[in-house]
Amino acid sequence: MSDLSLRMKQAWQTRLDGEILYFFAFVLYFFFSFIRNTTFNPYIGARPFNLVSYMVVGLLVIKIYIFDRQQLKSVFLTTIGLVIAVVSWRMSGSNLIIVMMAFILGARNISFKKIIKWYFWLGTVMLFMVMFFSLTGVIQNMVFVAKGRVPRYALGIIYPTDFAAHVLYLVLAHSYLNYKSLNVRYYIAYFIVASITMLVTNARLSFICLLLTIPVLWIAKHAELEHRPVAKLVASLYWTSTPLLAVITFFATYLFDNTNHIFYMIDHLLSGRLSYGNMSLWRYPITFWGQKVIEHGHGGSAGMKVFNQHDAGYFYIDSSYMRLIMIYGLVVAVIMVGIFMAISIRETSAKRYVIPAILFIVSISCMVEQHLLELTYNPFLLALFAEVGTNKALEEKTIEKQKL
User: Fold this and answer.
1) 316: which of 13, 48, 286, 328 is 20 to 30 A away, CA to CA?
2) 206/210 Cα distance (integer angstroms)
3) Are 243 and 359 in contact (CB under 8 A)?
4) Residues 6 or more apart from 131 whose CB is under 8 A from it?
5) Bridge partner list, 296
6) What is the pLDDT of residues 172-226, one digit of tens each?
7) 157 phi and psi angles, rounded to 5 deg
8) How far is CA 21 from the centre of its chain?
9) DSSP label at residue 328
10) Cα–Cα distance between 73 and 61 in angstroms, integer?
11) CA–CA separation, 328 vs 372, rounded Å?
12) Can you tell me the distance from the alpha carbon of 181 to that of 188, in angstroms, rounded to the nearest whole number?
C-alpha cells in the first residue's frame, strides 16, 4: 500500500471529535473572515461570509452540546451566554458577537497554544498572500493620501489601520508562542516590524501599541523571576487595564466638548475618535441588548469614495468599547469586559503573566480600534475556557491521538 493510500485510510478512520470539529470551524471561518476584509471582497460579496458564519456557529454548537462533557450548571451558563449573544446579534444585525461567543464557549478542552499556532500561521500566510496579490495588481492596493500626512498603503487590506492591526495581533501571537525565548533579538525584530509597518501605513496608534509590546512583555517576563518585586507588582496590575480604559473611553467620549482646547487636541491626536464616538451618543440611545447603527467608514472601495469626498457622510465608531455599548448593548459590553478581567485575574493568580500582558496591549488598542470581536484579529478571548496551563488529561488525549 502506497504512503498516500495509507494516509487516506488513516484520515478516513480518524474519529470525529470536538477538537477536529473546532479547528475545522476555526480555519473555515478565519479564511472567509480574512478575505472579507480585503479587496478580494467585491469579487466574493457578503453572502458566502454570512453563510459560513452561521454554519460555523452550528458546528460549534454541536461541539459544545455533544462532544463537550459538561456538568448541568456549566450547560445552563453556556446556554445563557449563547442566548444573550443571539439576542444581541438579532438586535444589532451584526453576527460577530454570536460567532465570537460560540468560539469562546466552544474552546473547552482545546489547547490555547494550539489555537494561537493556527491563528499565527494562517494569519501570516494570508497576509503575505494578500500583499502579493495587491502588489502584482490582481487586487486593488488602495492608497490614502490626506493633507499633512504621507501616503498610506493598505496592501490589499481594506484600510491601512486594519493592515497595521493585523501586524500588531500577529506580533502578539508570536510573542505568546515564543514567550520563554523572548530576548533582545526578539525585541529588536518587533521594533523593526513596527517601524516598517509605520512607514507603509502611517498607522500611528498601532505603531504605539507595537512599541509598548516590548516593555510590557519585558516586565511580564521579569515578574516571573524571583527577587523582582517591582516587575511583579506592575504585572499583577495588568488586569485592571480593561475596566479602567473602558470607563475612561466612555466618559471621555460622553464629556467630549469640541470647544475645549484639551479635548480638541486629544481628539486630533486620536484622529477624531472622540468626536465621532460622541456623535454616536447623540444619534442613538444606549440600550441593554444592542441596536442597528448605520456607519460609513473609510474601508474598501465605498470607503475610498467617502475619503475622496473629504469625508462627506463619514460616520464610524472606531473604539471597541464604544462599539460594544452602542451596537451590541450594555449587557454584552459588561460580559466582554468581564471576560478580559476573568482571564487576566486567573492567569495572574497562577503567576503566569504573558496573557495578562497581551490583553493589556489589546485593551489599549481597543480604545481606538474596532477589532475586539473579530477573530481574524483577536483570538485571545478564547483563553477563557481553552486549556492554557498544563493539563494532564489533555496531554494524555493528545498522546493517544498520536498513537492512533
Assistant:
1) 48
2) 6
3) no
4) 155, 156
5) 315
6) 999 999 999 999 999 999 999 999 999 999 999 999 999 999 999 999 999 998 7
7) -80, 160
8) 21
9) I
10) 17
11) 12
12) 14
**DSSP assigned state of 14:** S
Give 258-312 as a 3 state SS string. Answer: CCCHHHHHHHHHCCCHHHHHHHHHHHCCCCCCCCCCCCECCCHHHHHHHHHCCCC
* Residue 144 CB partners (closer than 8 Å, separation 6+): 151, 152, 154, 159, 160, 298, 304, 307
Contact at 8 Å (CB) between 170 and 127?
yes
Residue count of the chain: 404
pLDDT tens per residue, range 345-387: 999 999 999 999 999 999 999 999 999 999 999 999 999 999 9
* Percentages of the chain per state (helix, strand, coil), in multiples of 5: 70, 0, 25
- Give every CB contact of residue 343 below 8 A, 6+ residues apart in sequence: 355, 356, 359, 380, 381, 383, 384
Burial per residue of 143-180, b for 16 or more beta-carbon CB atoms within 10 angstroms, e otherwise: ebeeeeeeebbbbbbbbbbbbbbbbbbbbbbbbbeebe
Grid cell of 199 as nine digits: 512607514
Are residues 38 and 157 in contact, defined by beta-carbon separation less than 8 angstroms? yes
Q: List the grid coordinates of 51.
A: 453563510
Q: Which amino acid is at 381?
A: L
Quick count: other Cβ atoms within 10 Å of Cβ 379?
26
CA-to-CA distance for 29 and 26, rounded, in angstroms? 5
Task: Give CA separation, 30 vs 44, 115, 156, 246, 387, in Å.
Answer: 15, 12, 17, 27, 21
CA separation for the pair 105, 98 (Å, rounded): 10
Neighbouring residues of 163: CB distance < 8 A, sequence distance ≥ 6:
153, 154, 155, 157, 197, 200, 201, 203
